[in-house]
Write a structure and sequence with these properties.
With 243 residues, the chain is mainly alpha-helical. The chain has 13 helices and no strands. The protein is elongated. The protein starts with 9 loop residues before the first helix and ends in a 13-residue tail after the last helix. The relative contact order is 0.08.
């Protein structure tokens, strides 16, 4: 299903719809649409190629909505091209003037493999549009069920990773700890984080609920420790027990 067939605002149709041909010929865009990796490499790396000196201009060229060639590449699912452009330092977190990202675009067009590629390349899964919608919500609205399911999975995984990073940064920061934790608290925290990192590394084909459960387990371990950190210095913390 094409996004333009879905009932939505004309503004969103413009952001997620096909791009018009650029006023001037863009050889980089043409090579990207064809999936011509040899042409792309030549333009980027061959100093004698007539288009080499203009490569940054071609990359930065945007339409009136702020979309560069990557948006069209995502619409048509040219994953190898996206990976190649990322290797050359192209910004995969670019947005339109209304906040639509490459993830939003791929989600609307049902390009599941493109979504996987973008997530592997650390595209921002939390980015929202001017409507406050993330890529998963766009996928749901355009009835791209597989894309929405994958983005649920990817977000749950990223939430777990972010929580681990938050704990590690807090526990190792003397200004945040301020003498409120003993050695055992710190050891417990860091061991719990390492256990979850090992789980992420070694678990084959975890599902969305697995990530949610692992994060909840870590939250349960950290609750009394975070309670200590939240208490004023010199005051005994009160740890609430879950019922």
């Amino acid at each position: 299903m094409e996004p333009l067939e879905e009932t939505a605002s004309s503004n969103e149709h413009e952001d997620l719809g096909p791009q018009e041909e650029p006023a001037q010929f863009n050889p980089l865009l043409m090579a990207a649409l064809r999936g011509d990796m040899e042409d792309l490499q030549q333009i980027f790396e061959d100093s004698e190629d007539p288009d080499h000196e203009k490569v940054n201009k071609f990359l930065m060229e945007k339409d009136i909505l702020g979309r560069n060639l990557l948006f069209t590449t995502c619409m048509v699912g040219q994953n190898d091209v996206i990976q190649s452009l990322a290797k050359y330092g192209v910004d995969l977190k670019d947005k339109t003037v209304r906040g639509y990202t490459l993830l939003h675009c791929a989600a609307a067009w049902g390009q599941l493999n493109t979504l996987k590629t973008l997530i592997e390349l650390e595209a921002d899964i939390y980015a929202t549009t001017f409507r406050g919608e993330n890529a998963r919500e766009i996928a749901n609205r355009y009835k791209q069920a597989e894309c929405a399911e994958f983005l649920d999975w990817a977000e749950a995984k990223q939430n777990l990773r972010n929580f681990i990073s938050q704990i590690q940064a807090t526990i190792t920061d003397p200004e945040k700890v301020q003498g409120k934790l003993n050695k055992e608290d710190k050891t417990t925290s860091l061991k719990a984080c390492q256990a979850k990192l090992d789980w992420l590394e070694n678990t084959k084909e975890p599902n969305t609920q697995d990530f949610i459960d692992q994060k909840q387990q870590l939250e349960d371990i950290m609750l009394p420790i975070f309670t200590k950190l939240a208490a004023p210095r010199g005051q005994d913390p009160v740890v609430s027990k879950k019922t």
